[in-house]
Description:
The chain has helices at 2-13, 20-36, 43-74, 81-121, 133-149, 152-161, 167-187, 193-206, 215-245. It has one domain. The chain is mostly helical. 79% of the residues lie in helices and 0% in strands. The model has no long low-confidence stretch (mean pLDDT 83).
Amino acid sequence: xxxxxxxxxxxxxxxxxxxxxxxxxxxxxxxxxxxxxxxxxxxxxxxxxxxxxxxxxxxxxxxxxxxxxxxxxxxxxxxxxxxxxxxxxxxxxxxxxxxxxxxxxxxxxxxxxxxxxxxxxxxxxxxxxxxxxxxxxxxxxxxxxxxxxxxxxxxxxxxxxxxxxxxxxxxxxxxxxxxxxxxxxxxxxxxxxxxxxxxxxxxxxxxxxxxxxxxxxxxxxxxxxxxxxxxxxxxxxxxxxxxxxx
Length: 246
């Protein structure tokens, strides 16, 4: 947990939207290796995660591009963009709510899983136990408070630094990301909400022209993605060492 939290704080400070899910995975891996060596890792689990590190932003990009193109084609007679955006302001409330539900269904579940595993290992719950209600409510409250108090840095990066979002393009990106998250949550596949929405934002930006996407910012975000698992892995490994030596 320390590995994931430290990495998230570092990337938040620089305004880089990275995956808390992958930071948590890297942190768990680092602690496991420090405790029991590389044999403690399950290769199949990491293989599935690695595949969807690539697929989730691509799926979000393609869906975001397709949805916005479909919307623009449907309302092509409405040539005034400001009128179109005004009409989609209310619709964006629905798409934002859907994306938030997908976010909770994906990210909060991973935190619950870690807490449940700790409770079972500590002997508080039997191995066959389900997630207690207080764990569910605590995870929901924490993710809500974190979103509320996260500050402007990442919001600014996602909303205006990658590409300039307007209500119609924001609605398309959120709808694309929500659809992807609903599918992966139903299939039990742990994907990155951040990767998915970033891919969708790039997709809607690309409908205007390729230069509408600030590829320099996107490149920095991708590098942060690449370094998330090894970075949180290293922090968790170093955090566990004093306990092992002691």
